[in-house]
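From the pipeline queue, job 12 of 40. The input is one protein chain; the requested action is below.

Action: predict structure.
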Amino acid sequence: MIPRVDGDARLGLRLAEELGPRHPVAAVAVVTPADIRTAANGAGLGSDFELASVSKALTGLLYADALERGEVRPDTTLGELLPLDGAPVARARLNALSTHRAGLPRLPSAAQPWRRTLQLWRHGTNPYVESLDELLEQARGVRVRRTAKPRYSNLGFELLGHGLAAATGTTYATLLDRRLAGPLELTGLYVPADASELRPTALDGRSRRGAPREPWANAALGPAGGVRASIGDLARLLEALLDGTAPGAAALEPVARFAGGTRIGAGWVITTLRGREVTWHNGASGGFRSWIGLDRAADTGVAVLSATAASVDGIGFRLLASP
């Protein structure tokens, strides 16, 4: 069956062929020096997907932008920005958080991550339900490891984003809107505080086997995994990142070693593949997968979104190599 394709028909068919029937609802953007192409299969170009951990890449842009504005310093600590009551996590520096080197766990133990994961697998429920106040209370009890090695942390990016918002006296959702969505006219980029704030354009996500999944709509999660956007938004973001007009574009510059021989900027991972440097991030939630990447030397960018919880990383890298 030929899928419904909105946008560039050839690109949409390539997306369908690459992803197969497991991904009936997906979208792609390809930005090159010659043109900008977008396509959506099984949805409209304006439909919004969960970005999951691609949200961290956006938080990295906000961090780099805040540095440029002089609102924070690389050595600013969380305790200077958030009410952490002198807990060990209060000593975490923003530059360490932005590169996953603050020694924080992926999630606080008080959040009962294994119980949440089990509920997600069994019932498809949103595992992120705490308020910002509850997140801060969980963070106060976190054990901080002293290690030179990176330790990927959702908690770290949650606190980084909320700390940046606190530095400007606002919320993360408002900061994202004022600093990124507004200036770049990303009209579908937003952070729902809960499921009641989902827009009519919001897609429903599904597991790999097609079971429905609750949306991961939560204000506390926002900076690490709660942002939603359309493929058109990501196309415009890629264009701005490539031409240098995106706020906080310095986040793309590698500043430290990361896992598996990669390097990391502010949230963005940098990998060398067959002599090409790729700057990227992926995302995974209960019902969605996402990937965004740039070959800055070739002035090319790609984004792939799916409303099914099966990886889209492969097609992202392949499209970037052969757009």
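Job complete. DSSP finds ten helices and 13 strands in the chain.
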